[in-house]
Amino acid sequence: MIFTHDKGRLCNNILQFAHVYAWGREHGKRVMSMRFAYKYRYFKICHTARHNFFNYLIAKYGSRWGFLPVVHFDYPEADYSHEERVMLQRHNVVVEGWYARWYDLFLKYKSEIIEMFAFDKQVMLYPRRFLDSLQKSDILLGMHIRRGDYKDFYGGLYYFSDEQYISQIRQFLRIHSEKRVQVLVCGNERSLNQQAYRQAFPNVSIEFPCGNPGEDLYLLSQCDYLIGPPSTFSLVASMYRNVPLYWIEDANRELCMESFDTFDHLFRNIK
User: Fold this and answer.
1) How far apart are alpha carbons 240 and 238 in whole angstroms?
2) Domain layout of the chain by residue ranges
3) Taking a C-beta distance cutoff of 8 angstroms, is the pair 254, 171 a contact?
4) Are strands 93-96 and 70-72 parallel, antiparallel or unpaired?
5) Rounded to 10 degrees, what is the CA torsion of 55, 60, 66, 72?
6) Sheet holding 245-247: strands in order across?
7) Which residues lie across from 94 on neighbouring strands?
8) Burial, 228: exposed, middle or buried (Cβ in 10 Å; 0-12, 13-18, 19+)?
9) Is 100 exposed, middle or buried (0-12, 13-18, 19+ CB in 10 A)?
10) Phi, psi (5° rounding) for residue 192?
């Protein structure tokens, strides 16, 4: 079995596992995610036979004590032919690193990946009630706000202010001036200045769901368009239904419909 291990957050783990799963699927190898064996229990995959705490302990301590070989994918565009040979030849191996990537295989098995990461019914209860409570609209825009660790990530390159996020919403509304647009704002900042957003758009319904990461991910996946800084969270939300996604790389760049892209292209451009 191939055990995958990544130290990143929820959606980093989804993407890393999905790449390795696709490689394993192509080569007849079983793949298990250590993280989804005990953490982020929001998905169908967490309740499959391989994803249990016993297998997690085997991989964790087997790799730590040298009983299981570990291959590392730590650098972009490196030659990983040796690592792949180990994955093929060894019955059990642990895969670590963010750059384990097989884009074409990922797309080949994308429907299986989405099925594995289908949301638990319990996770969907609150988001579905929340969506049912919304006013009817023509377009549901999901705005993903991420600050926190982005203050230091790439020197704060994607650390945007409320005014900059509000500007993105305003430009989207201008493009869709003849449509009824509703906005869902999700993010990892619980002290967000909600009043600033509501005051900026007094005639627009702007909602701030207070879900856990799994619930927020489901909500964003149900939107018609997504906007946010480059993040695997909005990327995975886009994956489920091919939701058009705009990654804000330059907050001063004018937003237009051509700014939106698809998961199948964007997932090749994550850093």
Assistant:
1) 6
2) 2-116, 121-269
3) yes
4) parallel
5) 110
6) 205-207, 181-187, 139-145, 225-228, 245-247
7) 3, 70
8) buried
9) buried
10) -55, 140
Q: Where are the alpha helices (DSSP H) in the chain?
A: 10-27, 53-64, 81-89, 103-108, 110-116, 121-133, 162-175, 194-200, 213-221, 232-241, 263-266
Tokens of 235: 């990327």
Place of tokens 């419909």: 257
The residue behind tokens 């825009």 is 141
Instruction: Count Cβ atoms within 10 A of the Cβ of residue 188 and give its class: 0-12 exposed, 13-18 middle, 19 or more buried.
Output: middle
Nearest alpha-carbon partner for 271 in 101, 144, 104, 109: 101
Domain 121-269 has CATH 3.40.50.11350: yes
Q: What is the mean pLDDT of each run of 10 residues along the chain (271 residues)?
A: 89 96 97 94 94 93 93 94 96 95 97 97 95 91 86 73 94 95 88 90 92 95 96 96 95 93 92 72
Are 202 and 158 in contact by the 8 Å Cβ rule? The answer is no
**Is this model's pTM higher than 0.90 or not?**
yes
- Which position has the token pair 């937003």? 255
